[in-house]
Amino acid sequence: MPPVPVLIRGSGQTMKWSRSRRLFKKAQGLIPGGVNSPVRAFKAVGGNPIFISSAKGARVYDVDGNAYIDYVLSWGPMILGHAHPRVVRALKEASERGTSYGAPTEPEIRLAELLIRAYPSMKKVRMVNSGTEAAMSAIRVARGFTGRDGVVKFEGCYHGHADGLLVKAGSGAATLGIPDSPGVPRSYARNTITLPFNDIDALREVLQREWRGIACVIVEPVAGNMGCVLPRKGFLKGLRSLTRKYGIVLIFDEVMTGFRVSYGGAQAYYGVEPDLTCLGKVIGGGLPVGAYGGREELMSMVAPEGPVYQAGTLSGNPLAMTAGIETLKVLSRKGAYERLEERARALEEGLRDASKRAGVKTRFYRAGSMFCTYFTDRDVYDFRTARLSDTGRFARFFTGMLKRGINLAPSQFEAGFISLAHSYRDIEKTVRAAYEAMKQL
Ligand code: KE4
Questions:
Q1: pLDDT in tens, 16-48
Q2: Domain match, 308 and 355 both
């Protein structure tokens, strides 16, 4: 049993973080930046990250005994809430049968069936161990299938850290990418064209000129890595018709939106079918997982059926499959998404009202149970407009919420998430904390 956590102490003034501070100092001597993924280091919001010791339902508990209502949810996977009894029980039973065999297992078939049933655009699916692997592999399949090298992505969309995707828009009309990180060879970056999200005219113009060299267009159908940016009416349908016209593979990166914006992801939510889909997060129930799948003629390219090589020691790991299967079984129950929608709507209405009463200009965007509050008085529809948000104000808001026992994503350019475990009381507490934190901005 996790340590019995101390309840949220008052309005937050008594919140102590001394053990987290000590652990962070120690971690920094052993792990780059003290974390195993950069955003966790709180660099965008200042201060030291809180070290989590346990989690249950809608709450996480830090090593100093503080409790927080959690809207990070491990960056999306914990849609049932933390340590769901059904998932924990199944994992315990599975781990007693061994944790990995390096051989095919029945749970891989069961999860593949659940994914293919939920995503009719996927006729076959391959399990991998992260969203990065899913996106990297899907792009390789698109290149193998088309014999072309070029990739089009959109500014502010993140598809994992494969070299060819750590690319920013080239200067001027060239549009050819330039590396967005040291270590990415220019030769890789040159194959990637980066365009503004939601700008279908820019895509039309580039494809008219460059289509012969473009293997795929990859997009987050709802962009969750620059906050939460919704596709404009016609954008996704425009991607679909332009890519079809030029024989270009359309890849929906639904690592975040899959089973999040609806059980069938953004493609069901917006009614646009891609050629390949990347999944992750929710489908592993909190264990390392990714998947990519799509049209038969594309997926039959994948080794050992076809010539496009891709492999993984722990791909289809029985524990990750088990956690994923149990998570999707709970999500497929009648009323699950209505419950998520009701709570997400209550949070949206509450936060909009809190910012109005506090006299703070914000823009709130939501797709299903993923959302973002920007500190700006202008509409946000791409990376340029997202960056107009006052990140200093966001940082102060983030800290004010943390002190009041609310754990938000430590960056203005991340999405927040709600789980089935969040109660109306949790939402009320969150809205009250938001009003108090905004008043102090
Ligand atoms: P991973 O390799 O982190 O499993 O997945 C990469 C990825 C791919 N596609 C989308 C749409 C994603 O959102 C992600 C990862 N999301 C971030 C959150 N912004 C993970 C958090 C982190 O990097 O620590």
A1: 999 999 999 999 999 999 999 999 999 999 999
A2: no
Of 142, 149, 143, nearest to 176 by C-alpha is 149
Predicted confidence at residue 170, as pLDDT, reads 64
Whether 435 is a known active-site residue: answer no
Residue 13 inside a domain? The answer is no
Within-domain flag for 5: no
Asked about 61 being catalytic, the answer comes back as no
76 Cα: distance to centroid of ligand 1 (angstroms) = 9
Cα 402 to chain centroid, rounded: 21
Ligand 1 lined by 144 (C-beta under 6 Å): no
pLDDT of residue 61: 98
Q: Given 119, 281, 365, 382, which residue is catalytic?
A: 281
Query: Edge-to-edge, what's the strand order for the sheet holding 52-56?
Result: 52-56, 59-62, 67-70, 406-407
Does residue 139 have its Cβ closer than 6 Å to ligand 1?
Answer: no
Q: Please give the number of the atom of ligand 1 that sits closest to the Cα of 257.
A: 11
Residue where one domain finishes, among candidates 331, 353, 374: 331
pTM: 0.96
* Domain match, 225 and 321 both: yes
Q: Does 77 map to a domain?
A: no
What single DSSP character describes residue 181? S
Residues of the chain falling short of pLDDT 50: 1-12, 173-174
**Where is 245: in which H helix or E strand?**
helix 235-245
Residue 176, pLDDT score: 65
CATH number of the domain that residue 431 is part of: 3.90.1150.10
Quote the domain boundaries for residue 409.
18-70+334-439
**Residue 303 neighbours by CB under 8 Å, 6+ apart:** 309, 310, 311
70 close to ligand 1 (CB < 6 Angstrom): no
pLDDT of residue 130: 98
Specify the number of domains making up the chain: 2
Tell me the pLDDT tens digit for each residue of 92-102.
Answer: 999 999 999 99
Answer yes or no: are the C-beta atoms of 74 and 310 closer than 8 Å.
no
Which is catalytic among the residues 64, 253, 382, 390? 253
Residue 220 Cβ contacting ligand 1 at under 6 Å: yes
Q: 281 an active-site residue?
A: yes
Residue nearest to atom 1 of ligand 1 (CA): 131
Q: How far apart are CA 315 and CA 310, in angstroms?
A: 10
Give residue 178's pLDDT: 76
